[in-house]
Amino acid sequence: MSVSAFPISRELSSVRIVADAFARLSEEEAASLWHVTATHLLAVATERGQNTLEARAEVDRFFDALKSCKRLASGRVR
Fold first, then answer.
1. CA quadruple 60, 27, 4, 11: dihedral positive or negative?
2. In this predicted structure, what is the pLDDT of residue 13?
């Protein structure tokens, strides 16, 4: 899977698609997929010229966006 969602704020539809895919996985599978996805996104960001700290912050924002989409879908946030 390849997601190039930088900056995240412009890629909300991509975040929702990925969040939906994660929601269908078991907790263990989702954790494994997140590790692979985060590693890939970090590599993409640094290849595009972002420094490591900025790239890590961007990946963190992506993960936060995924969690927000999951909470919204489950009805925990109104």
1. negative
2. 72
Number of separate helices (H) and strands (E) present in the chain: 3, 0
CA distance 15 to 39: 16
CA-nearest of 70, 77, 72 to 19 is 70
CA separation, residue 77 to residues 16, 67, 69, 73 (Å): 15, 11, 9, 8
Q: What is the pTM of this model?
A: 0.65
Beta-carbon count within 10 A of 10 CB: 9
Each residue of 6-61: pLDDT tens digit? 555 566 677 778 778 888 888 899 888 888 888 888 888 888 888 899 889 888 88
Which amino acid, one-letter code, is at 37?
A: T
